[in-house]
Amino acid sequence: MQLREDIPNFSWEEVLSGFKPDTRFWSHMRTLQELRDWWEAPLRITSGFRSPKHNDAIGGAGKSQHMIFATDIVPSVKSPHLPQPILPEALDLIADKAEELGFTGIGRYDIFVHLDMRPKVARWDKRTRIK
CA 16 to CA 71: how far, in whole Å? Predict the structure, then answer.
């Protein structure tokens, strides 16, 4: 089931049960939908809200934004914005556009991009491959 009419490409199942949406959540998801609309291809959420217990169990950061609300996403490489279907290039394009759209927390990883809307700008790069 889609989140709302204006966010048609993401479901409640993707963002996890047990979470009560607030203004920050809706702002995040509207902006993520803008990113998805621009990309013109699916963005898969691999991690959304995490309870503190779940965050601990998976080895998440002690102050992980996922415990407030964040998403880790993997873009489809079938976007018209991508000349060749290469994941690292897709991740770079997504991270750059996410910054332009207003995400404040952006983390680059080998196979996904972390996005959040924390109060202060934060950028990090945890890629292990050649950058």
Answer: 11
* DSSP 8-state symbol, 28: H
Residues 6+ apart with CB under 8 A from 79: 39, 40, 41, 90, 93
Angle between helices 87-101 and 23-39 (to 10 degrees): 130
CATH node for 2-125: 3.30.1380.10
Please give the model's pTM, rounded to 2 decimal places.
Answer: 0.83
Distance CA(110)–CA(35), nearest Å, equals 19
List, for residues 52-63, the tens digit of each pLDDT value.
888 999 999 999
Q: What residue segments make up the domains of the chain, in order of their start? A: 2-125
Match 């993401």 to its residue by tokens: 10
